[in-house]
Design goal:
6 helices, 7 strands
Length: 189
Amino acid sequence: MLKSTVGRAFLRAYGWRVDESYPRDQKKLVIIAAPHTTNWDFPITLAVAWKLHIPMQFFAKDSLFRFPFGPALRAVGGIPVDRSRKSNLVDQLVAEFDRREELALVVPAEGTRSRGELWKSGFYHIARKAGVPILPAYLDYAKKLGGFGPLIFPSGDVKADMDLIRAFYADKVGKYPENFTPPRLAEEG
């Protein structure tokens, strides 16, 4: 309850509204966080998740989870991943889906706040291997509105699935629109 109150207060203080169409019946999913053009995306996304009681989790390199930040990162949903191990990050996160009854894993698919050429495809491969849907989420700074799109069940046809994602994000505006990397994966050819 405290997180929800904090989330609501934060959003109200900064003038943000939330489209509350989150699919509550879906216990496991990969949430795309886009556009990702500023550090402000993280606290606003966290506030949206807290307001809506979404058990949002995210991954970060395990070295960030050492003292003094570890307890705080875990408290807000951080999952440490070992980047030095030879194992694949996708497989580590798929294992998290296997271990848990509920997981809303948030992935900033752009991978950076700067404009790039392609999105990182990990979100797609995690969802496909774990057998869970992808939920596009957005923060539209032009409207000061955060929310969610339709569930996308990865079909294996990367281009067709990305066409759905592109259509969804076509009218979403990041804080720095010039830094938004258009939704495209290398696997599309």
